[in-house]
Amino acid sequence: MKICVTAKGSDLDASVDPHFGRCNNFLVVDSETMEFQSIGNDQGSASGGAGVQAAQQVIGKGINVLITGSVGPNAFSLLESENIEMKMVSGGSVQEAIEAYRSGSLESINTPNSAGKSGK
Q: Where in the numbering of this chain does the Dinitrogenase iron-molybdenum cofactor biosynthesis domain appear (predicted)?
């Protein structure tokens, strides 16, 4: 299973970034081997539409689960349409977030939990 965690850094010890569309990096982690790929978020400084573009970027990596703090309405709809499970985390490291997911202690994101921006 591929798990994507929004991160402030580029390794498993990095702090989780709570903002999906504007995070620094996405860490795509194989939940069985813990091998990971760090992907820079090219959309982080976009004036609008960052969430949708970020969603397209991680969907292209074949993820099954997204762990983050907040997801805006447009990104949420796109991720949901791809059947990506979304889980909320409020802090800690990427490694800790994955361990929390494995233990079943992360809350599901069932509706958008960030206002997002329209880009207008």
A: 13-102
Residue 53 and residue 41 in contact, taking contact as beta carbons nearer than 8 Å: no
Question: Of all helices (H) and strands (E), which one includes residue 37?
Answer: strand 36-40
- Rounded CA-CA distance 3/65 in Å is 5
Domain 2-108 has CATH 3.40.190.10: no
Task: Say if residues 6 and 18 touch (Cβ distance below 8 Å).
Answer: yes
Q: Is pLDDT of 36 > 70?
A: yes
- Residue type (1 letter), 92: G
Stated pTM of the model: 0.90
Report the SS3 class of residue 101.
Answer: helix
Q: Which helix (H) or strand (E) holds 51?
A: helix 50-59
Q: How far is CA 48 from the centre of its chain?
A: 18
pLDDT reading at 66 higher than 80: yes
Return the structure tokens found at 95.
């490694």
Question: What contacts 56, CB < 8 A, 6 or more positions away?
Answer: 78
